[in-house]
Request: fold
Amino acid sequence: DGCVPMIDVSSAQGPSIDWDEVAASGIEAVYVEKDVGNDSPNPHCKAQLDGARAAGLLCGVYSFLYPIGLPGSGTNQDGTTWAINGRDPQSQAAMHKAVDYGPYDLPEAIDLEWPKQADWAKWGCSVDQIAQWVLAYSFARPRATRLYASPSFLKSIGFPREFGRFDMWLADWSDRAAVPPPWTTWNAWQFTSTAK
Reply:
């Protein structure tokens, strides 16, 4: 069917993945988490990529986005102030571009699955705000051309037509991928979250 078997890994898997075993299982490609919002980069990203490349796997990276709408500073109840840098899309894109272990075999990707709709008020989010945030991020980081998202998350933000500029990396835990609009097909399909 022309598909390339692929997995993704994050900081949770640590630096000691047996990549030869992964390749022997039939996996041919891997996406490695590079960054998480305005938090620290994945500290194991380089080791994970080096191991995967040594085992002959095709490699790509993804960045987990924090598309939140609250400003980056505020005042605590006791009057002290706090600041969180990198909440705006341009700053996150700059942070994510600064960590680079390329070239990569696969398109760089962005992971859009947070915050859940129940937490939007907490983070100052809305349908339009998330869509505009992601588009601003993508213009600031043009090499990130693949979007990882589930149909349910895309539905919560109204299936923005402008997102059709991305290749679709579909997260759909089913036997048959339900491709959401504005796409008509997927470029990558993650069909399970429990495989070993």
